[in-house]
User: Fold these one by one.
Assistant:
Number 1:
Amino acid sequence: MTATSEPTVAPPSAPPQLYDTTLRDGTQQEGISLTVDDKLRIARILDTLGVAFIEGGWPGANPKDTEFFKRAASGELALSRAVLTAFGMTRRPGAQAAGDPTLEALLGADTEVVCLVGKSDRLHVSSALRTTREENLAMVASSVELLRVEGRRVLFDAEHFFDGYRRDAAYALEVLDAAADAGVECVVLCDTNGGALPAQVGDVVGRVVARVGGRVDVGVHVHNDADCAVANSLVGLQAGARHVQGTVNGIGERCGNANLMSLIPNLKLKLGMDVVSDHDLSRLTHVAHEVAEIMNLTPDPHAPYVGHAAFAHKAGLHVSALARRTDLYQHVEPELVGNTLRLLVSELAGRSTIVLKGRELGLDLESDRTVADRILSRVKALEHVGYSFEAADASFELLVRAETGLLREHFRLESYRTIVERRDDGSVVAEATVKVWVGGERLIGTGEGNGPVDALDRAFRAALDGHLPAIAGMHLRDYKVRILDQNAGTGATTRVLIRSTDGEQEWDTVGVSSNVIEASWMAMEDAYATAFRMAAERGVASP
């Protein structure tokens, strides 16, 4: 190995098992509430990703999870790759496993696999369960034995294991022995409070594997309270664990769980563990965003691998180097995880950025240095007064097309007017009138809306009625206003960013003005122009 060679890690004989707990542990995140239909839909999406287990929830804990497993058992959820798993606790202290309500509900869920959680920290045994250490061991053993007699495969989540091992290693290991001896196929070491650090996890997992690894598999389930969940999971697997649990986008209680969207590519691309196929990996970004959409969560643009900005480059020096080799400023090729390289145009951009961005748009700006320099000067001047093209690709493309003489004028604004009226009954009504020219025809439209921006949109559409197949299916997806000079009070300059969609594509536009309505119109105007341009490229009639 030369001094410049990258170290390699020999892949294990078989890749570790991926266990997804999005539908159980993930839904404990504040602000997430899924319907049963949502859970069924997400389970089908997860099944396409290549995970080995999908934990559907805790049957009997709430009506929603009970209904989920009932509908799954009826054939409504036909998983083709993953194994559906039910989650629940060991029996109650001082009771028998047979007849225990929790265990009966687990059996009633009719899943091939059950994940049973039990205490492995003596402090929790005495303070939370209020029982003896011996009784806790009996609870684990008898619960597992009952499920095994009924033909279930059993995994055991050793709750608070790392904290329990630190307090009393001997007892924590006794709990694992009890589960292993009763017939579980995997003991999962849980960092339930999320406070463990990688060195501790690696050491403890290694010791556990040495003790029980010959009898059962060892797994890890970690939380992210110390921002180490992904690192702890990787270290645990490198120390000999054969099973790892996590959630899509790292959602979960408090600070979340280990993020499968980072774990999967790290395992496959960095450590050579084929936990999913190449095709599965290429769907990673799509899965991350689709699940977030169902959960009504805004995807984190800066999320590793799957974020919108994960492969975005802004500095001119970086872009200049990327023009020669894309791996100079990227640790992996974005296409491997279903993402794309993005070049951000801003005041930090150089000529290389403009040239490469033009190439993305199908324009040759390299052969005409004057045009590229003019576009760059225009961008820097506009960003100086508050524009942000890095978040508005569609507006930048219109600017480039205008500077290169390739911009077609589909419509031309003559004027607009907005009125906001507060009535005696307390209601507020906004009304707008828009006058535009399409070809040689002057068109006028009026509209009422929830506010002046909504009214302007309705008025514009009314004006182009009969001329608007290109924007008939277009609607505003997101609307953001930012005050740029806060000390200016109500006269401050505002920047409006609008995301629009036609159901197939999304595009972002920007407007800047000291009048928020004008800034909004400018962003809307670019959005309409982009819709017409895309429609023309698809052969849809437009003005």
Number 2:
Amino acid sequence: MSKALSIFDTTLRDGTQGEGISLSADDKLKIASKLDQLGVHYIEGGIPGSNNKDIEFFKRVKSLGLNAKITAFGSTRRKDSIASADANLNRVIESGVQAATLVGKSWDFHVHTALQTSLDENLAMIFDSIAYLKQSGLEVIFDAEHFFDGYKNNPEYALSVMKKAKEAGADWLVMCDTNGGTLPHEVHQIVSALAQEVPGAHLGIHTHNDCELAVANSLSAVQAGARQIQGTMNGYGERCGNANLCSVIPNLQLKMNYEVLEPGKLAQLTNTARYISEIANVHMPNNQPYVGTSAFAHKGGIHVSAILRDSRTYEHVVPETVGNKQRVLVSELAGQSNILSKAQDMGIEFDPANEDTREVINRIKNLEHQGYQFEGADASLELLLRQANGELTELFVFESFKMLVEKTAGRPVVSEAFVKLNIAGSSVYTAAEGNGPVNALDNALRKALITYFPRLNEMHLSDYKVRVLDEMDATASKVRVLIESRDLTSSWNTVGVSGNVIEASWEALVDSIRYALLGENQLENQEITAERGGIVNH
């Protein structure tokens, strides 16, 4: 039996049915190029003629010269009509794609209820539609909608649908768990039964995640004989989503030894997943298997101590195999191994026998108790470690800031910040407006520093999050602010905590600039201050 499999990506069609996901034609073209670089075999682009975005996509995708087969999605002809007159089928042909995905009913309940036609007419609709597309030279992938529910309700009819599709010339017979309610052992049993009934047919699987079994069901189908796996990147899709190809692909290739992607391509998986999440503007869960930022993150000191000896102690695969990396987290659970590992990653030398190492651990634990969180703020952590190691020279000293927020009836809110710093022995006082207090502070701080440090022209704040730490205190609660900053080549995260959201924001802002200036030529006479970010001594 062949160990080669085909990956069919439907992120651009089924994935866009997920709540909150909308892709422009440009977005779809970018994603298609990225998927092609990864090495998927089929890319389903959408439904030709259904909307302007898909029309534009199918016109422009031809010029990309992709290796993957671009497929268009359509449904069987309307009841009591002829295939050659069906506008939907003709749009698929006119789109110029190499392959077509044709969906048809395989559950007798749906035939009677949704189509409101006879079982024989449904078979005719399937045969005529596939035959018409084959006559036009297309590869036809038949997606049997609700196949598993249909088989459980009326196995004879569900099988007759697949036999009719094969008779019409379908290249692939794909079993769909459309409602996502089938269990892995049922999938294996039903796929095995179909493989016996239609020997020699190329079988595929299309699963949904309503029971959180889409990946498991896909793997079970492959074990039973399916050779095409349909799914989406990051599991995007209607309701609870589709089978997540970011888990399906490495499980098949690394765990089950199937030929899925070409050699070396699997290392692009994490980058591809994150790129698509950015284009779709959907946050990717940190704990997503294989490609999430926490997939190979270690927090407990005992775990970290073990992985530093041999990563196999707490990692099921080598992270780099899927393009990810090992991360050691520093928190209130941290031990000496965590600190040493993080310091090593940052190029900071810490002596394990030194009392300073234990002091840093205790300091971090105390800060975490106050509400600081360094798991998502590596830049603030690095500043803390470098300061503790005696190698951080402050480039400016905070003296004061003031805020003015004014609201006048009928006019927008005006925010103005006044910042006073000491830079190289000189007192610098600036004022700036912004579209909010934090933006005004950011503008005033930059205004004070930009003459001395032109590099700040290259960085900007890219994300800002506020978390209430104790909702029981209502508006008097302590808050944690996380800021993400970017420059031309990288991004970094900083944290601030206070009962005052402006002060917490200031801490995170100052850290973001201090981190951006690491490596700058040190100014004379500026020694390490006792202030973190100019306000609080940690």
Number 3:
Amino acid sequence: MSRAPSRLAAVLLASLLPATLARAQGGGGPEPDIVVTPTRTPEPAQTIGSAFTVIPREEIEKASARDVGDLFRRVPGVTLTQSGGPGHVQTVRIRGGDVRHTLVMIDGIRVNDPTSTGREFDFSTLVLADVERIEVLRGPQSALYGSDAMGGVVNIITKRGKGPPTGFLSVEGGRYGTKEVRGGISGGDERVDYSFGFAGYDTAGFSTFGYRIPRLRFAVPWGLEPDSARRFGVNGRVGINVMDGLRVELGGSTSFNRAQFDGFFDPLFSPYPDTPSRAESWLSNVYGRVIADTGPLRSTATVYANRTDRTSRNVSFGDFGVFCGNAFFPAAGVATCRQDTFFIGDRKGVEYQGDLKLGPFGLFTFGAKAEQEQADSFSQILLPEPAPRLRDIAAEQTTRSAFAQHQITLIDRLHLTLGGRIDDVRGVAQFETWRTTAAYDLRETGTKLRASAGTGAKAPSLFQLHSPDFGTATLQPEHNFGVDAGIDQLFFDDRVKLSGTLFWNRYRNLIEFRSPDFSVFPVVPIGCRPNQVFGCFFNVARARTSGAELAAEVSVVPRFLRLRVAYTAMEAVDLATHMKLARRPGQEGRFGLVITPMAGLSIEPSVVYVGHRYDRPFDPTLPNPIQSFENGKLQPYARFDLYAEYRLNPNFSIYARGENLTNARYEEVQNFGTAGRAVYAGMRANW
């Protein structure tokens, strides 16, 4: 077993702890940042015992509307995977958990897709139109947020307007026929505040399959066709202060994504991967919130609803016949299959949260929630022989939850939290989770020591339970236990900010898919129903993830040169098979500089590094050549990017973005293409 994470952590902590002695006594820093997600209440960052990262508005504005997922490369402990170019599926893993173990919220409202395989969230459906910040919380958080939060939480917080009306507009264009625009307006006074934004892009793109992958250059000898993508969205938020201590908020967002994609490649069953397939998705979210602050008790009541509507047109070709649905259609020559699928996922709920101030005894947070999820899916074969539309899934589940958390500060330095939650998923199971954190604040040396421990749980998805082809109605919730410990350090007059964390997680009762073994008879896997000849879901898997995270920001030369680093070393192992978990790199990081050679000019070069990993689980006992073929070994890569912006005046700036300027060839998912050298330029106006 690799010891790289532990060695890295030992060096990291050994370098950080003595630095506390070098910092000047009593050096006051800036006012503490306020974060919400780690405790469900606004708290100074210095009091938080959990590991978290905030992506601020200025970083979001510099990112492209095409690839919002690239923002997560700036966060240690987070792994981004994209199946192709812009508009294609983007998923996030936190600390080696599965993509379904990441809870995604917009303004505190859960938006994970009820119809996806594991209720995972696809970031390609998201438009960052007018976002104030993104808070990423790492480690098991089910005690705060319930199911789906086993690995961590991503909370996207939209802007709250204030002051006189202001607006912004940016336009950009570049390689692959890309055009994008973003804009918004906001403002407010003591009575009413508002904020509205929009964003969209259009790109001719490149082939999802095989683009810039040398070994696949002969798979489609007549050449690869580009796969275009288009996305747009709007969001808004209005707040009304009805009277002192009473506020009403209304908010919502909607976004649309359309992308062409290619099919699966197999020399025998699917020899034509470059197909004219297309996927579309709508994500709509709306909420209303009433906040009543009556002295020691602050009450928040929220009602919400969201819908994910997805459509997929799947086209495939085959020699002398084609598999379509669960049947094989023979033909004299090349046969075509077109199967359309439709997914509609609805979520609605109501939640109450009370925050009771106890004076010297801290803050007690409690609440309850009722949420209903519904999933409907349909499929229809149009070629080679038209067939009627079939309803595959029509299911729902209701979850009722109650939670409580106590925060207290002792001796004005030690900040403690302890909380728990009960989730009752009707007809499935009831599970309890807990969480505790501690943060010790040494202001004199700019040091925060922190630690957290907790459990996570996730109810099976509606697809895993009710899919007629693969579902298992008796599935039970997944569980995990995780701990972490770390140090946040400021020194050299706050010019150096370092954060190091060790983490360890153990998963049990994981839901996995049992595939058939066609070399034995009968073909139906053990434990599956007779009609499930292609496999089914079951609870057996166990896994462990462990590693170290490092984040650093160093003012090398004040007002001229800054260094930013986010780095993760991790080991993720299936405890039942001892195989390395798929798509979890052993090392990854982003290393960037911010150079300001003159007033108004900012130049930001960066390198994204991702170590080797496997597209499917890897067994270290087999020879490497077999592993590389059967498990899709993906080679490490380093990608060089460059961003430059020149502010002509306080209200107008021009910028350019260079991506993968070294033209590195790499894959994030086996056989799926990634962008080559590309340059984009734009302008941004504020008023």
